[in-house]
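User: Is it possible to get a 3D structure for a protein together with its bound compound? The compound here is magnesium ion. I've pasted both below.
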Amino acid sequence: MSIECLADYAVPADATWGRQHEEKRAFGRTEFQRDRDRIIHSTAFRRLEYKTQVFVNHEGDHFRTRLTHSLEVAQIARSIASSLKLNVDLVEAIALAHDLGHTPFGHSGQDALNESMEEYGGFEHNLQSLRVIDHLELRYAQFDGLNLCFETREGILKHCSLKNAAELGDVGRRFIENRRPSLEAQLANVADGLAYNNHDIDDGLRSGLLDLVHMSELPVFGEHLRSVSREYPHIDEPRRASEAIRRTVNSFVIDLTEESDRLIREARPTSLDEVRKLPELISFSDEMEQKHREVKQYLHQYLYRHYKVQRMADKAKRVVSSLFKAFKEDVGLLPPRHQLQAKTDAPRAISDYIAGMTDRYAMKEYRQIFLVDPL
Ligand code: MG
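Assistant: Yes, that's possible. Here is the predicted structure of the complex:
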């Protein structure tokens, strides 16, 4: 995006607070375009393809993975950023990187790892995303990590305890000072929730765990479903569902854009510094926020707690906890690079190793360690 298209409350295209390690400016790219490119070329980004969103990768080829989820978040966030004249490249970089720290097997993997790490500082995927880009990617001769701009790193760190904030230095400061991040970071965060609510409806229906008739009572989606049925009474169920989801996403996107635009106009920030001092300005209207919450609750009740999803989640927890325990009892089971890291902090080294695993790699490790005949 060219500089003149940006609003004065956006993060300027080439005015970053800098990188942790000094580097020459990139040729032909803005600093945030360079960040986005580094993220796309990272190993952690490629692993997202084989990490669960709700359904484990081998359960079907059409379900969302962490990778397609991240791409959908980036797509939604980019189009809203463009309407609000925000920095599209920064929004995209944050959206593509926001889940890099996710464990295998979605939230059940994270819960299990957090439990295993309880005595050693815990595990939180959001903090882990920052660890991945700051330390764990080993691709550059000059430094560990991807050496991303402050604004990208700050956007990835959505939430954080005060204790962790104090240890994190510059990116943690805003939590201590009670300041907001850029509007680009706020947008990537809201777009995350918007994307997963809607694609989980899609995946839930595709899997047969959610029922289209039952869902006609759901706010927004149900209303669109009924109007699609009225307008196109003869189309088949999958098409009716897709059309209703498309319209649902659109209503949330329009509401988020209009309400955020209204809040920005009302608060009239004229710089990023002013944005930081104001309350969050990227928001749904109260009415749509309520509907968004209701959809989330519905998904919790009927999809995430469905016994078939729970069975997989339970199995996933067992794989993660057992791997942690085995490595903790004998760090000699870790591959050499991780053994080296374990010399300074064994629990964190194990946690980093497990968090980096894809679903199938974790299952392979489990078979290799626990089964006598791994075939
Ligand atoms: Mg996400």
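The mean pLDDT is 93. Residues 69, 98-99, 192 surround magnesium ion (CB under 6 Å).
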